[in-house]
Amino acid sequence: MQRTSFKNMDCSAAKALECVGEWWSILILRDAFLGLSKFDEFQNSLGIASNSLTRRLKHLTENGLLERRIYSERPKRYEYILTEKGRDFFPVLVALTRWGNQHLAPNGAYVQLADRITGKLLEPILMDKQSLLEITYANVIVQPGTGATEALKARLAMRKVDVDEGH
Amino acid sequence: MQRTSFKNMDCSAAKALECVGEWWSILILRDAFLGLSKFDEFQNSLGIASNSLTRRLKHLTENGLLERRIYSERPKRYEYILTEKGRDFFPVLVALTRWGNQHLAPNGAYVQLADRITGKLLEPILMDKQSLLEITYANVIVQPGTGATEALKARLAMRKVDVDEGH
């Protein structure tokens, strides 16, 4: 499972991947979003080896996505609760699920989202907050942000975006 | 790099992860979204070993996210172009980048999105298409979809969602 670190890449997506850890970690977060919090619950859901689960929970805790809390003093037992940073990861999972539903679910969506209060079904779309333009590859371009390094600016300046490709 | 397959999990997010392949593959897609298409371009951008890059490009092509096209007959050379399925993955990368910008970019966003036509900066938000409700962990619940298996329905019925946790 060793791999090159993405930590020093000047890219938010690479840093996000490094922070989350690895493939399994996204499914741990998925289960946390479904309300699971205890070691055994994650293990039953994921069918993952104890030592692997321990390592990934530790990584997610150290990186601030989960918080470890004592829920039993005798014996001492911990549960893992999503932090604000962890909860903010929810749209990534929704986007991933939406793509899976679009392209990998021939019998219809596996899961769907509903309004927590009204129960109405929801159709998640990534939009610009102000203009409500749908954000797709076809209609946006990527630019350096305020925190872009010189290296990133140079890299983005060299990119070859064929506008027609997006349409 | 061997790991348990997610393919048989009845979950769109797990299937999406399986389909994409692995961590590096997301960065290959990122570069494809920036207009890179040739083997050397991906290799220069990612600093990845040839055999690893070959394997991941093959996986992404076999899974229909990239399409291999001849761009030179003599010598025979190929480029890798995003398919519609690949382009549809764009919102996942945007959501991941947004989270990285929110939590892992102390000096400001690395990259930002702008309207391809007007050049206006965009703020990507995941919303319900009809009601424009912002989709966050706090205000939605997850339900079985039309393609949910009995096992998935049972799993979702057992989930413990503490409504207060989301707020």
Any overview of this molecule?
Helices cover 43% and strands 18% of the residues of chain A. Chain A has 167 residues and is an alpha+beta fold. Chain A folds into 3 domains: 12-87, Arc Repressor Mutant, subunit A (Orthogonal Bundle), CATH 1.10.10; 90-124, no CATH class; 125-167, no CATH class. In chain A, the strands form 2 sheets. Chain A has a two-stranded antiparallel ribbon with strand order 1-2. In chain A, strands 3-4 form a two-stranded antiparallel ribbon. The longest helix of chain A is centred in the middle third of the chain and has 14 residues, at 90-103. The relative contact order of chain A is 0.09. Chains A and B meet through helix 1, helix 2, helix 6, strand 3 and strand 4 of A and helix 1, helix 2, helix 6, strand 3 and strand 4 of B.
